[in-house]
TrEMBL record:
This is 2-oxoglutarate-dependent ethylene/succinate-forming enzyme. It comes from Yoonia maritima. GO terms for biological process: ethylene biosynthetic process. Keywords: Dioxygenase, Ethylene biosynthesis, Iron, Metal-binding, Oxidoreductase. Pfam families: 2OG-FeII_Oxy, DIOX_N. One of its GO terms (molecular function) is dioxygenase activity. It comes from the Bacteria. PANTHER family: 2-OXOGLUTARATE (2OG) AND FE(II)-DEPENDENT OXYGENASE SUPERFAMILY PROTEIN-RELATED. Belongs to the iron/ascorbate-dependent oxidoreductase family.
Length: 330
């Protein structure tokens, strides 16, 4: 990979760690019901959002609420295990699989996110699943949830193909879940409760400002557990344009375009900054749980935009470059 590639995406993350101002903006809601009948209309709305703010929320998306609830419930049960139990499933740098505690340092802030996470990247899960007796139903719930998120992500991505002028099945082929090269990730996240925190602790971020590495992120939030803020870019002088709170509504899936798709679309689809702030004094200080599915093109997928303005890069090389900058690999 060239130095320009390395610099462009990573530079975007630097110098953006400060609090900034808050601005109210609409994050478009897109109704996915009757998808096959309404495909053209849905595709228009998705394109409009993805080429503008880069964020949108899906409603009537087809993932059953009972499965979302089960996934959050099993996630909390996993994080409730003692640290020495969770340490049996360590995240190995560069793998996006396993458990980490305050290990992700964002280039924008230089400090670790105040969270723990457990990541599921299916071909890399040997010895990383908790036992059935420790967290009953964890694996079957997560396998079902992972696959439904994949299917929804592919549905959304397929809506971009005709406008981009690429093959209808480009993204589905490029994220083939049956391939050993599959590297999309389901990440369970637990932001630590702040009930016993000191004023000093509030100087950190639950998740520092960043853009995602992937093609498309599907983020599940819990009703009332807010903090996610998005920023649609910078002005001509490189100042961020202000942060917008994304209301946490249960069952609604907040989506954003990631850097991999921005590059693959020759910068047509926009990957924008976001972060998770600490609760304010009048907000709940309790823990926050979220679950993100990151659709990341398979390791052997070659990312090359239709106009070819960037040099081709494999999914493998792209993700490794970004993981190295966040988890201190290499
Ligand atoms: O937990 C959230 O609301 C956002 C998480 C996020 O942006 C990420 O993990 O990339
Ligand atoms: Fe993110």
């Amino acid at each position: 990979m060239t130095n320009e590639v390395r610099l462009k995406e990573l530079e975007k993350e630097r110098h953006i760690g400060s609090a900034g101002v808050t601005i109210e903006r609409d994050v478009p809601q897109i109704d996915m019901s009757d998808f096959h009948l309404r495909r053209a209309e849905i595709s228009e709305s998705l394109w409009e959002a993805a080429t503008d703010i880069g964020f949108f929320q899906l409603i009537n998306h087809g993932i059953p609420q009972s499965l979302i609830d089960d996934a959050f419930d099993r996630s909390a049960a996993f994080f409730d295990l003692d640290a020495q139990e969770k340490e049996k499933f360590p995240l190995k740098p560069g793998t996006n699989a396993g458990w980490e505690y305050k290990a992700q340092v964002r280039p924008s802030t230089g400090t670790a996110d105040q969270k723990e996470s457990y990541q599921i990247t299916l071909p890399r899960m040997a010895n990383l699943w908790p036992r059935e007796s420790d967290v009953p139903d964890f694996k079957p719930t997560m396998l079902a949830f992972e696959r439904m998120n994949w299917a929804l992500a592919m549905r959304v991505l397929s809506c971009f193909t005709s406008k981009l002028g690429v093959a209808d099945d480009l993204f589905v082929e490029g994220h083939d879940p049956l391939s050993p090269q599959y590297q999309s990730t389901l990440r369970l996240i637990h932001y630590l409760g702040m009930e016993d925190a000191t004023p000093e602790d509030f100087k950190y971020w639950r998740a520092g400002a960043h853009t995602d590495f992937d093609c498309l992120t599907l983020l599940h939030q819990k009703q009332g557990q807010g903090g996610l803020q998005v920023c649609p870019g910078k002005d001509a002088d490189g100042r961020v344009l202000g942060w917008t709170d994304v209301p946490p509504v249960g069952g609604v899936i907040t989506c954003n375009i990631g850097d991999m798709l921005m590059r693959w679309s020759d910068d047509k689809l926009l990957s924008n900054l976001h972060r998770v702030r600490m609760p304010k004094p009048d907000e709940s200080l309790g823990p926050r749980y979220s679950i993100a599915y990151f659709a990341q093109a398979n390791m052997d997928t070659v990312l090359q935009g239709p106009k070819g303005i960037y040099e081709p890069i494999t999914g493998h090389d792209y993700i490794q470059m970004r993981l190295g900058a966040n988890f201190g690999k290499k």
